[in-house]
Amino acid sequence: MQYASEALKAAFEKTSNIKIDVIIGSSGKLTQQIISGAPFDVFISADTSFPQKLMETGMAAEPPKIYAQGLLVLWTVKKGIQPAANLQLLLSGNIVSIAIANPATAPYGSAAEKLLKKYALFDKVKNKLVYGESITQTSQFISSQSADIGFTAKAIVLAKEMSGKGQWVDLNKNDYPPIYQSAVLLTYGKKTHPAEAKKFYDFLFSSTAKSIFKKFGYLIK
If you average pLDDT over residues 16-30, what whole number do you get? Predict the structure, then answer.
């Protein structure tokens, strides 16, 4: 959501007099911060379980709603490496390090781990795995060539900041659990900025927001 959220922010601020501060982090880490009292109004997660956890702990003002489905890609910026959807190249001696987001806190990391296990590759490449705290940090590992190749969100490789950078390939969305992503209006937001927080939350499900999500490679119902 790093790049898509900036596009959402720009579109929303253009049609309202409300300014937004965007805080980027892994879904799990942000959830812990909210539970610990972080003053956030709306939570846009990369999955459904973390917003649901906030609902169950009383930190959410209403049940979360799915805004999009994320897609996983395999990406590299190193010359001489051509990503392939069957993932067999990960076994090559040319691949020393593979970036993946922490499965415990980042939904895309969890999906990538499950994909590797489905292809019976996880145990074979686990010593090559380099874990990022979030999908953003994982993508930085890939784009800086700190990792030879890695798993990231399609939304990141489609961002204009990454245009033409390296090579990537779509991974079969039927080979990993659907990455349904949901958002939730937080109790803090409802109490502190009721009108503003609700207006932005509702905007996330508008036709304008849906067009932005589609542009960034998300699937929309």
Answer: 92
Closest Cα partner for 21 from 35, 51, 42, 4? 42
Given a cut of 80, whether residue 1 has pLDDT beyond it is yes
CATH topology of domain 70-175: D-Maltodextrin-Binding Protein; domain 2 (3.40.190)
2-69+178-215 and 70-175 have identical folds: yes
C-alpha dihedral over 19, 24, 27, 28, to 10 degrees?
A: -120
Pairing of strands 149-153, 72-76: antiparallel
If one compares 150 and 159, the residue with the highest pLDDT of the two is: 150
Counting every residue written for the chain, the total comes to: 221
Q: Is the pLDDT of residue 180 over 80?
A: yes
Task: Output the CA torsion 132→1→169→221 (10° steps).
Answer: 140
Q: Please say whether the structural domain 2-69+178-215 has been given the CATH code 3.40.1260.20.
A: no
- Does position 205 have pLDDT exceeding 90, yes or no? yes
Provide the 8-state DSSP code for 90: G
63: number of Cβ within 10 Å: 11
DSSP character string of 160-184: GGGTT-SEEEE--GGGS--EEEEEE
Let me know if 38 is exposed, middle or buried by CB neighbors in 10 A (0-12, 13-18, 19+): middle
What is the SS3 assignment for 149? strand
